[in-house]
Each structure stands twice: as C-alpha cells, then as structure tokens.
Amino acid sequence: MAAVKRRSAPRRQAPPPPPPKYSRLEAIHRAHQSGVGLAPNTPPAKSMLAGIILFSGVAIAGAAFLGPQLYDAREAAAATVDAAATAIGMRVHAIEAPGLDPARQDEIRDVALPEGRLSMLAADPDDVKARVESLDWVARAEVQRLWPSTVRIEVVRREAMARWQENGMTTVVDAAGERVHDAGGYTGEALPLLVGAGAGPAAEPVLRALENLPAVRDRLVALVRIGDRRFDARLEGGVTVMLPEHNPVAALQELEGLHRSHRILDRAVARIDLRLAHVMAVTPAASSALNGA
Predict the structure, then answer these.
(1) What Cα–Cα distance (Å) separates residue 5 from each residue in 2, 8?
(2) Cα→Cα distances 277→184, 221, 245, 259, 263, Å
C-alpha cells in the first residue's frame, strides 16, 4: 500500500499593523503638508462645517443674549469661525461684479465682506446685498454664493435723472432723488436742475412725467421747490410755470397739450400760473414783475 503524502497547511501571515490614528487636526496638518486638500464635499469636511456653523450660532447668539458689553466677544467668536472655515478651504477667492467698470468693481469688493473676514460663511447673501446697496450709485443688488470660493454680485445702477442743488451743493440724483454720483465726478450738465430743500425726493412724479412731455422737457431749465410744497418750472427764455401743490403732472400734461394746439411756450410770456385746476393765468413778458409763490 502506497504511502499518502500529506500536504502541509499554509503558514498564516501576520495581519498588517493598523494604520496610525490621527486626530482631525493632525490629519488636516498632514494633508496640508502633502499638498492634498480636504474637499468641502467629503463627509469629514461636512461634519466640520456643521460643527463650525453650530459653534458660530451658539457663540454669537450667546454673546448677543448677554448684552452689548460683550460686543468684542461676539466679534472674536465670529473671527474664530471665519478663520476655521478659511482653514478648511472655504476662503473667498473671487468676488465677481459683471458688467461694471474696474473702479466700480473695486468699490463692490471693498464693501462686500465685513472687515477682516475671508471665508464663504462671512459672505451671507443678505448681508452682502445690504452692504452693496449702501453704495449711493447702486439701485439694487442680487448675490449668489458659488461654492466653493466665488461670490457673484449682479448690480443694477441708479439712472441719472437730474441735478439737485441744495445748500450750495449740486448732486446728480435718480428719479427718486437718490444720489448717483458726486457732482465733482459727473456733472450731468445735460440733466434738468432741481433747486431747494426737499426738491430731490419730491420731484419723482414730475421727472417721470416729463419723459412723455417733450415740449416742456426740451425747454426745462430747473424745477424750483417753493415752500417745500410745490414746484415752479423755469423754462428757457425766462418763462416760469407755477405748478400746483397737488397733481402737478396733470398741469404739465395740460400745458403740453396747449403748446401743441396754440404754441404757447413759443410766445412772449413771463409766467404761466397753473395752480388752480383747469385754470390758466398768463402774464405777458413785457408787464411781468411778479415773483409770488
């Protein structure tokens, strides 16, 4: 009987040693040294982001609850959160303001984020919107955070409609009387002139109506605020049109119609009084010496 040769059992290999355990901070440090970043969409980064947000809410709300004397503590907490978010790659690298010239883009970038803040968490869209709209030449702004590192700001500029002269200063304003540019940078010499206290905000309905009243608009030199209650329209040739306190637009529309039918603005008149509805008092140029309100 032939002997059966038994096969020896294979040797068991020793299990590999377990990988070294690093703390989260050590892992970040080693990844930074090796040039490998921690992507914001990885689960650990998400967890850390959630922790940052939770910490920021608790710290800032707590400081606010304890009173204004802890303003510095609240600012310190916000700065800590901002630094932590920046450290994990959530830094703002670009603030885009498409369609604006470079100088205006720089103005946007200067105000978009709180001073000293660098992270995307600091670029809260509502806060950025309020900051950008505080610029006097911005009518409104829309803000988007494009993760991981870009803030896009779409801006609608104020439209220059008139020059407002008040207390010796002239400012270019939009139809609502909001300032667009300093007069020193943009004089707006072709724009109608508003004169007097409160003239800027009060002139909006008149300025908008003039867009459809070419005969009056083309002759208009200034809208002068009288007693902070109504306007006189000063036209070329020294003509003064006295507008009513209520519904000056209807009076101007009536004047435009009379000019089309009777060429009244081409006549030698010094003053046209429209303060009473559907009543017009005309003073010829040769006999006018009145300046009443």
Answers:
(1) 9, 9
(2) 40, 24, 11, 17, 20
Contact 52, 81 (CB under 8 A): yes
Task: Give me 146's structure tokens.
Answer: 């494009």
CB atoms within 10 A of CB 28: 19
- CA 60 centroid distance within chain: 26
Chain centroid to Cα 199, Å, comes to 23
- H or E segment to which residue 34 belongs: helix 24-34
Q: Report the pLDDT value the prediction gives residue 37, as an integer from 0 to 100.
A: 41
Amino acid at 171: T
**What is the pTM for the complete model shown?**
0.53
| Per-residue exposure over 247-283, b if at least 16 CB sit within 10 Å of its own CB, e if not | ebbebbeebbebbeeeebbeeebbbbbbbeeeeeeeb
Counting Cβ atoms within 10 Å, is residue 284 exposed (0-12), middle (13-18) or buried (19+)?
A: exposed
> Token match 């883009």: residue?
105
Please name every residue paired with 171 in a beta bridge, in sequence order, or none if there are none: 164, 182
Q: How many alpha carbons lie under 13 Å from residue 256 in its C-beta half-sphere?
A: 17
**Tens-place pLDDT, residues 229-262:** 999 999 998 999 999 999 999 999 999 999 999 9
From the CB of residue 211, how many other CB atoms can be counted at a distance below 10 Å? 10
Cα separation of 293 and 287, whole Å?
A: 18
CA distances from 208 to 14, 195, 248, 252, 255 (A): 87, 17, 12, 12, 16
Rounded to 5°, the CA angle 65-68-71 comes to: 100
pLDDT for 28 = 46
E-assigned strand segments in the chain: 94-96, 138-146, 150-157, 162-166, 169-173, 179-182, 193-195, 220-226, 230-235, 240-242, 269-273, 281-284
